[in-house]
Design a protein that fits this description.
heterodimer, A: 120 residues, alpha/beta, Nucleotidyltransferase, domain 5, five-stranded mixed sheet, B: 286 residues, Rossmann fold, Alpha-Beta Plaits, nine-stranded mixed sheet, two-stranded antiparallel ribbon, 11 helices, 29% strand
């Protein structure tokens, strides 16, 4: 399966970005093959509002089954759920570490947003 | 004397004395026989009524239009989501989602929907209240607590204000959409500052904003103290005129603490504000 990790850089050595909506990139990793590539999210990094919504839409076009991030707010969570993408908050360290933890089943799937929204 | 003029009282920093200056200007104008209206556009914290004590007799709810989608007509083409700058509507996995709190009410999604699947629904953001304070017209807006979108309410407050009179607009602080909405059609803007580094820093931001808006303006220094030339130096450097300096005076603060206009109760204050009004009318060229 393919999973996306909100990241400060573009590869497995990059740190996980705790911010879902305003991360600079998503690193998309295929958990079977280990193949990875970066998806630019810079346009949402600087948006006035709706960064979480647009980031969720952005990553939903990449065919991923799950997202690993630091925190996920209510609007992004709603969009990700509608797109059938599972959310694993609490990711830290490098993207590679987070993917390894995910594969070992050490990350817990969120059932709701874990932080408050900015506008609602 | 009948001046048909819109004078906005603004500042960068909050708490510099916008409402004090605006309400006392209104009283000065009335004392000069001028037909005048006070318009409180500080809709998050409207306080002018505490000093002008109007009788409010008209009340009107203000709505912003938000999209409602008919799922039977929607084909999930995604054009609504493409045009929305505010992410208030989005198509994801073949379904359309809306976020009413994000919507600025522009109506763009309804215009581009090829299926006419989107209709406007109203969402209440606040209320406009109108009345009179003696012979003075009074309008203010109250934004619902927690509401992020104040400009549509500020526009409603502005358009409720009477025409053909001198209009004193009490603007919100800051330099973003709310204050811009309040001052953009003003004939003249008075920027109230305090002579402190904090006050002058934010005055500088407000001056930058007015340069963008190309509105004629001048500064009022509030709580001026002898020997403090910070504001004078700053204004000279920025090439902006000072129309009045209101001295720091405990009696003004005491009147304020009781909800009274200093105009009526502090000796000398009324003359100073009347002088300011005369200067504004002269500067505004009418």
């Amino acid at each position: 399966m393919k999973i996306a990790v909100s990241a400060c850089g573009q590869d497995l050595e990059s740190m996980v970005d705790a911010r879902f909506g305003r991360c600079g990139h998503f690193v998309v990793v295929d958990t079977e093959t280990g193949e990875c590539r970066a998806v630019n999210n810079g346009i949402n990094l600087n948006s006035a509002q709706g960064a979480g919504i647009q980031s969720a839409r952005n990553i939903s076009t990449q065919g991923v089954a799950a997202v690993i991030t630091g925190h996920c707010g209510p609007k992004a969570f709603r969009v990700l759920r509608a797109a059938g993408i599972k959310v694993y908050p609490g990711g830290g360290g490098s993207v590679g570490d987070a993917v390894a933890k995910f594969k070992q089943g050490l990350l817990e799937e969120a059932q709701t947003a874990d932080v408050e929204g900015h506008w609602s | 004397m009948t001046a048909q003029l819109i004078v906005a009282v603004a500042s960068g920093k909050g708490g510099t004395g916008k409402t004090t200056v605006a309400t006392n200007l209104v009283r000065a104008a009335a004392a000069m026989g001028q037909a005048v209206s006070y318009v409180d556009c500080d809709v998050e914290e409207p306080n002018g009524h505490l000093f002008l004590k109007p009788r409010l007799d008209r009340r009107q709810l203000v709505y912003v239009p938000v999209p409602e989608v008919d799922p039977a007509k929607c084909t999930a083409c995604g054009r609504c989501g493409e045009i929305c700058r505010f992410s208030a509507i989005i198509v994801i996995a073949g379904q359309v989602m809306t976020f009413a709190n994000m919507c600025h009410g522009c109506g763009g999604c309804m215009l581009v929907c090829p299926e006419q699947a989107i209709v406007e629904q109203g969402r209440v953001i606040g209320v406009v209240e109108e009345g009179r304070s003696g012979g003075t017209g009074f309008v203010h807006g109250r934004l619902n607590v927690g509401e992020a979108m104040s400009p549509p309410l500020i526009k409603a407050v502005r358009s409720a204000a009477g025409r053909g009179v001198l209009t004193i607009v009490d603007a919100p602080p800051g330099t973003s959409c709310p204050v811009i909405t309040a001052v953009r059609d003003a004939d003249f803007v008075l920027l109230v500052t305090e002579p402190t580094p904090f006050g002058l820093h934010d005055l500088g931001l407000a001056l930058d904003m007015l340069k963008e808006l190309a509105r004629p303006h001048a500064v009022v220094v509030n709580r001026a103290t002898p020997g403090n030339n910070l504001a004078r130096d700053f204004c000279r450097e920025r090439g902006v005129g000072i129309l009045a300096e209101i001295p720091e005076d405990r009696r003004v603060a005491e009147a304020y603490s009781r909800g009274e206009l200093a105009f009526a109760v502090v000796p000398g204050f009324g003359d100073r504000v009347s002088g300011l009004l005369t200067s504004v009318l002269k500067e505004a060229g009418r």
